[in-house]
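User: Please run a holo structure prediction.
Assistant: Happy to. Please share the sequence and the ligand.
User: Here you go; the ligand is adenosine-5'-triphosphate.
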Amino acid sequence: MENVSIGIDFGTAFTGYSFGFKGAKQIRQPKWGEEYGMNTPKTPTCILFDENKNFLKFGYDAIMTYTRQTRRNEAKKLFLFDDFKMELYGKVLHRDSMMTAKNGKKMRAMKVFSESLKFMKDHALDMIGKHTAGVTYSASDATWVLTVPAIWSAAAKQFMTEAATEAGLVTKSEPERLIVALEPEAASVWCKQLPKEGFMEGDLTEAETIEQISGTQYMVVDCGGGTIDVTVHEVAEGGCLKELHRVSGNNLGGQTVDKNFKSLLREIFSEKVFDEFEENHPSELKRLMYDFSICKRYDGEVLVQCPYNLQELARKVKDIEDYFEGNSDAEWESGQILLSGTMLRALHDNSIRGIENLIEEILQKSNLTIRYILLVGGFALSPYVNGFVKEKFGSKYKVLCPVDAELAVVKGAVMFVLNTLRKTVKKYIITNTHTYIHTYIHTHTHTHTHIYIYIYIYIYIYIYIFLIKDRKHQDMATDYIDYILFNNKIIISLHHDIYLTCCNALND
Ligand SMILES: Nc1ncnc2c1ncn2[C@@H]1O[C@H](COP(=O)(O)OP(=O)(O)OP(=O)(O)O)[C@@H](O)[C@H]1O
Ligand SMILES: [Mg+2]
């Protein structure tokens, strides 16, 4: 059967997948939310379970079922999780760790993650079937690439790998069909090969693509829902990537603006009224926040529908117009809240300052000759974010934003597999060994067996790179390396020194 690569970008705010067939250039993804008047390339990272913890819905379906079809008392019985990706950041989660749902009750984190991945897997296989005249694809026909934040610990990455196995993407006997890639690298892999037309505006004059000029340094700023990741890559010989710097800012992404909006409402309606609304009408609050998140696409004035029960609770205390008296940036407009452009900009302020500080932090490093700043991620499409970066840094650097900014990670993930020939994939794997072993050595207590394994890996890599020249034995060695490395759950990453050594040795 034709081989297919499927990338999954499990985001804080939005999750999506893309797929491509080996040998074909096209990378596709579904549209989400059309039945609700939306048309987005990813769907909200939101999962709903019934009162018995059985999976019900994911994405827009979960939000809509929870906010529009669930009565107040029933909503409290359901298990709704959103923004849960960050549960894996900075915490030590194990297979039995629990996570708290919106109703305050707990569920196994592994189940929440694996059911989310299972939903994506089933949706993807179904979609692929539609593109192949009904030929049925199963999970084992695909190579899966799961992207994870670069700042995650090895334990968090391992947790995702286990969730993917529990979701049925791969089986324990075939772990090599799962590649865990870092989000900034995937985004970079996508952007560096884009032609001029792939970017919204800005000029890419020196070359047709960034990757064509060896030595070009560029910064990828991934503006997501939760985090802002800034990475500097250099195009090394043969189009490979060299990571020069990386910084991340947690809680600076698009959801920070949503949180600021919520604080503003609490200020306007008073803590007492808003807390009561939040406590008793979680589904209405969810819908309000969702409506507001759409407003972030615009600059200037925006209108947000005020939920019925918030109005009712507020009116019990005083006339609703009185809450807005003397406030020139938020007005009451018969059932809607009118936010001024100044206020909307102010809600973006701390995110934008955060992005500015992260970019500056990197630009202060010496010996960098950065030419481009590439803005990716959904929040990069915000007119405030996009406008700010162009205004602040546009005179010195070429600021480019891909047309499909929010898909850069997931498309890069697919391209990563489609474009990397067998040999190149091996290079990536070898590259990783070094990083992996170091992480492993620093995070585990070691038995003699572990030490022997490291020595084995090093010896084989050494043989592979420097000694084996004939094809047959080279293949045997790579298969052996595969076996060892994949069984140790290697994370794909670029570690420049070893990577280049491999490139040079293999090109000999
Ligand atoms: N057109 C747009 N204009 C402004 N903001 C947008 C737009 N599209 C998406 N966003 C915002 O971008 C954020 C989501 O971006 P993205 O999908 O890249 O995040 P993510 O991958 O889920 O998060 P992370 O990378 O932090 O895990 C949300 O806060 C969303 O409201
Ligand atoms: Mg992201």
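The chain has a mean pLDDT of 83.
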